[in-house]
Amino acid sequence: RLEEFLKKEVDLELSTLPDFEERVIDVSEVEQLMNSINAIPAPCAPVINPQAPNAATGTSLRVCWGLFSDDTVECYQLCYQPVSNERHTDEQAEHTLKVKETYCTITDLLPNTQYEFWVSALNASGISPPSERAVYVTAPSPPTIKNKKIRSCENAALVCWESRDINPVDSYTVEL
Questions:
Q1: Closest alpha carbon to 50 in 140, 109, 100, 117
Q2: pLDDT above 70 as % of the chain
């Protein structure tokens, strides 16, 4: 039977033409959704901490900050400048540092001087708004003892010194 069937000519023409719709699928909404899932939002503004006790020397300050949110941050941009009522000079110019951690020790500062600090967070999507500004103060320079004015007697001693700082110092501690 099979042999006979294969010997016959078979007409394979279809009586009706297939009617296929040409559909274009719009995937733009899906692409937008996928891009929004993969995109990292720009970070929120960091919060700069007030100056901690013992965070200053005569020429350096340790500045710390943090984030309120779980933002993805690649690095921070720390800016600072001396606080002054006068017009800006080159020495009072704004300085910017890139920092990986949430703290930084700034060196080569002037003794007994106020500095204003603010910080921004950066990631692949952009930069955050700056933090509030915080004022930090370097420690005063040690005073110079006036050796020629030292006087002493059996129950007392007179020691005189002078400050090398332009800004007034709140108090001194004398150790014997």
A1: 117
A2: 86
